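Structure ticket #2291
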Amino acid sequence: MKTKDLEEAAVTLSRPFTLIEGCDMKNPVLREIMDEDIKGMDTPLKLMKHYADILNKGASYGDIDKKLDTLFLCGKTPKSLDGYYHGITISLKTGIDSHGILSEIGSRLIGDKVDPLQIFYGRLLSKSSPWAGKNFKELGKKKLVQMTDGFEKGEDTTYLGINSFRKNDRDFINNLSGYALSAVIDMDDVPGPDRMQRSWIYAKGGLFIAKRQGSVDPEHPEKEVIALNYRWKSLGNMFPNRLLIDEIVQISEGLYLGKLFYATALKYIAADYDPGVSPQGYKYRNFGYFLLMDDTWLHEKNMLFPELAYKMADNLPKKFGAFNFISSPECKPKRPDVEKGKTILHFLQELSKGVEEGTESEEKYFNEMHKLFMCGRRPDGIQGFLHGGVIAFKSSGFLNKLGKNILNELWPAVRPFSPWTGKTFTSASLEGIRKYIGNDADYYKGKEPVIIGTNTYRKELGLSLPATAFIENLDKIGMVVEYPDEKEKEKDEGIYVKSFYFIACNNKSVNPVCNGKEALQFNYRWPKFHTMPPDNLCIDELVCIAEGLYLGQLLYSTEPKIEYSPENESSIYKYENFGYFMLMDDEWYAIKEFIRFDTEK
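Resolution: structure written out below.
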């Protein structure tokens, strides 16, 4: 709350409104909102839920639309909208009120106090809406000029966006409305979990171009908003969405209030969009309100709107609940309850949380991870990019003397600063690896497979950016640093830079407690890699525990003064386990993100 009057509001909020400095706090509508409506609530989202409940049970808007309009006028113009935002429709309305002949027809047919679209949405769709949210991605100037036939020049930050839709197989209305939407929105099905958005999204559609501009609201053209324009011909939207412009403003940090405006001028209904026609000429009218919010609001959203909470898909494929173990009497761990939406990743997440409980119980959970590793199969034929994640770190070696698992305790705080996304695997010949490790490549004669592996890193304007910049400069100490070719698939995987190279091949575990377990071994220790400490002491080992899902152990030599040589017995290096990680395909990754396992938030 920025202004003096706001600070004197009757209610103290845990997540305050972020309204513009020039907002008229003496406005009686705004005073009623701040002094009366929000009593007993501690966040703006709870107020929005309160308004939605009134609208979806009633037959008319009453004065709720005036309150939403007032908050909208006081909302800030968002500075950035890159990424995915969860969506909630507050309510819809016909948009025919107080506008000439449309108002007269509406008054005669449905009365002044009844809004049929509001009733339809409130009674049928408010608890079954298939709309899930919107995704924004910054649009380059060249592409923007092309998509707008040269009208937009890209002087302001502009985004290409798309809507996402959820599906609940047990909800008839949700499915029916999904089919209805597909008739007016060109939606692409997402048959499996979608890596780039979320596993619960079953379709995407309704493209828009978003940028900062004045409102198309005929009553408030001076209001600066982010306008989501569905009208450009190049977007291919169908009627009625080719008449639509959404507008959004920020009302709290990470929370945005939106309005839907449709062009109602009859002479332009069938014509292509012409940005040269004024908003007044198109006669835009408000057809409803919605919310967008970032991940920091997701928990509260699910608590307030439980019927719209994302759910794991029914009838999950067998791969998500079937361990792929070696044949052994000891390898029969508890099977996850897939029928209740539980997967092997949920099982690993429970083990991870168990380690977090403290040193008294962590050994039990590490023992479970060890059993899983010992039961896993050697992953033959591994290729391409796999997403990564941390299960738990273990303070071994000299760190064990601290009396607590300092590595694992620090990880949640460090995680936002880490740009690590996974690893790549590429089959190689002896000559192929020779350019990386020189004559040490001869060690791999007769071994199959031989793989060049890399760790992968993203580049984002956030806390992880300094770490990415640091990795980009590791070539100055002789380490390999490479970038994906623009045409390579790796670009599509979100890989910005690759480093911390290793050579992988099948081998017996160097972990003494693994008793020669067969695994895929990643060796970072070759001198020619110039791997920086402490990873120059590292050997990772990987096994497959399910289709597309791999469990790895982090092994470090606790004898750093002994120079590495493959001719030496591994026992002299005294390798110890410093934790477990996971690698996975796109489908597993989508579930990992969905259940918020080893994520930043």
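Closing remark: DSSP finds 17 helices and 17 strands in the chain.
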